[in-house]
Amino acid sequence: ETGVTQTPRHLVMGMTNKKSLKCEQHLGHNAMYWYKQSAKKPLELMFVYNFKEQTENNSVPSRFSPECPNSSHLFLHLHTLQPEDSALYLCASSQDQGGGSGANVLTFGAGSRLTVL
Amino acid sequence: GEDVEQSLFLSVREGDSSVINCTYTDSSSTYLYWYKQEPGAGLQLLTYIFSNMDMKQDQRLTVLLNKKDKHLSLRIADTQTGDSAIYFCAERGGGFKTIFGAGTRLFVKA
Predict the structure, then answer these.
(1) Nearest C-alpha in A relative to B4
(2) Which tens digit of pLDDT belongs to each residue from A43-61?
(3) A85, A116 in Cβ contact below 8 A?
């Protein structure tokens, strides 16, 4: 148990469905992240929230919509996905985005394995 | 842009040393990291090194940083079957983003 909990752990959806991934952290951190992990590809940073404000959107398609209602919760809303969106989606948190100093160590959840049919 | 590259697979025998290599492109990197991912789990920090250091040792782990060549390595001494996992190299660049490689899958043969 890392202190970052992701649900659901597995999700299968059709291309016309709407679903959401949820991430919750109990570490008192102020920054939260979504990463996409695909086989044999670098981990891909999708979104960053720092003190509930979105600070990074790494050219992610609009069919992925993040929401951060408070510093402890992060959602990824999914709609009209494509089969190539099938991947492991990892949530992470850190003390803050660390614009100045400090190692900014990330704590990850176990991931949500998404399959788009 | 920022890029982190590492080989995808490494196989070693139990008891041998493992060396996982990584190269990165951002010369303004401040911290470099090694994370480990075990099956069914997320990434977990193993160790990190500040860019003004060239070596860091922590029990069986030795990290070497060659800033001139933008090369980072992780040596695991006396590798055990429990060390089998995916090892990710990452760097924190000037954009305050943590950029990861694709991960090196380490196989340890008994």
Answers:
(1) A42
(2) 999 999 999 999 988 899 9
(3) yes
Contact B33, A92 (CB under 8 A): no
Q: How far apart are CA B81 and CA B74, in angstroms?
A: 17
Go through chain A and tell me how many residues it has: 117
User: Chain B within 8 Å of A49 (Cβ-Cβ)?
Assistant: no
Rg (alpha carbons) of chain A, rounded to whole number: 14
Amino acid at A80: T
Does the distance separating the beta carbons of B42 and A2 come in below 8 Å? yes
B107–A contact, CB cutoff 8 A: no
Q: What is the pLDDT of residues B72-105, one digit of tens each?
A: 999 999 999 999 999 999 999 777 789 999 999 9
Mutate to test the interface with A, among B7, B8, B25, B43 (most CBs of A within 10 A): B43
Interface residue of B22, B96, B100 to substitute, partner A, most A CBs within 10 Å: B96
CB contact under 8 A, A42 and B4: yes
Alpha-carbon gap: A78 to the closest alpha carbon of chain B (Å): 21
Buried b (16+ CB within 10 A) or exposed e, A3-13: ebebeeeebeb
In this structure, are residues A94 and A3 in contact, taking their beta carbons and an 8 Å threshold? no
pLDDT digits (tens, 9 = 90+) for A55-112: 988 899 999 999 999 999 999 999 999 999 999 999 999 987 776 567 889 999 999 9
